[in-house]
Amino acid sequence: MTVPVETGVAGFLARYAALRDRLPGDSTIRDAAAESFRATGLPGRRDEAWKYTDLRGLGAAAFDEPVSVAGDSALLAGVPGIEAPRIVFVDGSYRPELSALPPAFDVESFADTPDFGNLARPDREPLVALNTMLATDGALLSVPENVDGGTVQLVSIATNGSGRPIAFHLRHAIRLARGARLTLLEISVGTGSYFHNPVTEVHVAADAVLTHIRLQDESHTAFHLSTLYAEIAEHGTYDSFALNIGARVARTEVHARLAGPRSVTHLNGAQLLAGQQHADFTTVVRHDAPHGTSRQTVKNVLTGRSRGVFQGRIEVARGAQKTDGYQMNQALLLSPDAEIDTKPELEIFADDVKCSHGATVGELDAEQLFYLRSRGIPDPAAREILVRAFLAEALDAIVHGGARAVLESSVEAWWERQAA
Amino acid sequence: MLQISGLAAAIDGKPILRGVDLTVPSGEVHAIMGPNGSGKSTLAYVLAGRADYAVTAGSVTFDGHDLLTMEPEQRAAAGVFLAFQAPIELPGVGNANFLRTALNAQRRARGETELDAVQFLKLARAETKRLQMPDDMLKRNVNVGFSGGEKKRNEVLQMALLRPKLAILDETDSGLDIDALRIVANGVNDLRGPAFSALVITHHQRLLDYLVPTRVHVLAGGRILRSGGPELAHELEERGYADIVAEAA
User: Fold this and answer.
1) Does the pLDDT at position A341 exceed 60?
2) CATH 3.30.360.10 fits B2-248, yes or no
3) Mean pLDDT over residues B54-60, rounded?
4) For the CA atoms of A256, A258, A263, A264, what is the dihedral angle to 10 degrees?
């Protein structure tokens, strides 16, 4: 017997009504989120923050409950990664039998220890409200004071086990205590049609350093809409890089708050899109303390009819003197039908700051192309060299060799798919 | 080897070359001198095949080929090499990889076997040593963070590896100190032989002390106004171009 599944907002609310009493954690938080979501619905293009990203396809889709599948180790075959501890989720559920937990610190699951944190804003972000309403699982990583947590992989695999579209809303929290260190390699992959809607909360205490490298290589019929909130205390660093290759519609939304003096954040990334893909990189950096540094370079390579979006906002509060903010968005359009929309914003209330932003959009540089050809390199090969160089420069921001190699292989695979 | 007849060229509709006639036989080195804006660099770019220059009249044959109908990469494979006045930076492209890709592309175009990484590196290291360049220049990105002199030497390194039949040096001597100048001149002298010719564009007679030309030509106003032996360069150094330009007017 098949139960008809409702689509869009009604479908998600019906799911919540059915699951409410079985969901982990504080139901007053969930109820409030459900109220917000009911009031706003999915964001539309009238919302300034969603002007360039159209979720009508998501609103028209119906999603099934993920069915619990056995954690077959074959699922890990073909998933990119390195030799390091890993925390694995399959169709939105933690799979201990596929995971290898880090020795240096504790990992808990949201299902066992539900914690909605204090940074997420379901009242402002409809997708965060949706996640808050329906989250069932996620990873909670807590690295104690002065502990080097090494490198840990956070993996999400969507299996399309039921053969019907599913939705899952992972809820992660990464907490680094004073002086702690961690490199987190986050990988999202899958097959079939699904909706992955993760929300992550990051706390970097004083003198702590979190390096967060993300590879989003979801199925090309999937939605991947992620929201991350980070708060960085005095002299702490949140250093991130996100590579977006997959999904039909993707959004990487980051809210980073430099809460303590001399804190640092890097929100770098690259998007490689082909066909009908759409990927949106939206960030808000809030400088709330003096001597903070934020750096951001996001590169897009767009082919086919793909569309890239970059929205970057830097806010500098009145007391955040000596802020040093830099933001650069670059796009290479390799087809006449590809499109990039870029919207940098600066909002500065302090008078002694250094903030700059820039955007370049274009085709390959004619002088560079001529230089290569004048050395005997045929035109198509010369073009490929220049596009690869553009991407290599972006990936150079990743200091961790193993993680960079994972992303480089994904870029290589992308090239091979384009050539095929 | 190279025969230029009545060559006229324009950029953005503005005529720069107005009928250049020049023949460079095999085995000879010809210098082109002339005041700023006379069309020297335009001539170099047109010979190498830069697309933004429009050839409006004349012909260029090289080794029996109609050079003007060939793509830049075909010209390179046929043996034409341009040392750029302002070498282009290629961020994200390693120098060794660039050089090997170029060399192998030319070898492939000529039906020769390609060099593997080991063969190539051996060759490249020998050339960098001969040109007194640090080894790490092969590891760095092409021309990125290079000093002016290093960029020029990198051009000479490319020339040494690619072994062209015709080298066009566009002010390769500018910005070089006397030691670097000697190294660059020696780089060209080493290639000299019956099957090699060069067109050396320069402002200064100094380079020609080390790289003694067979002929010297004065290019002004888009035409060759005067040609002579190496002594012409000395004369120009003393008296400038004014007399020649006035004579032609």
Assistant:
1) yes
2) no
3) 97
4) 30
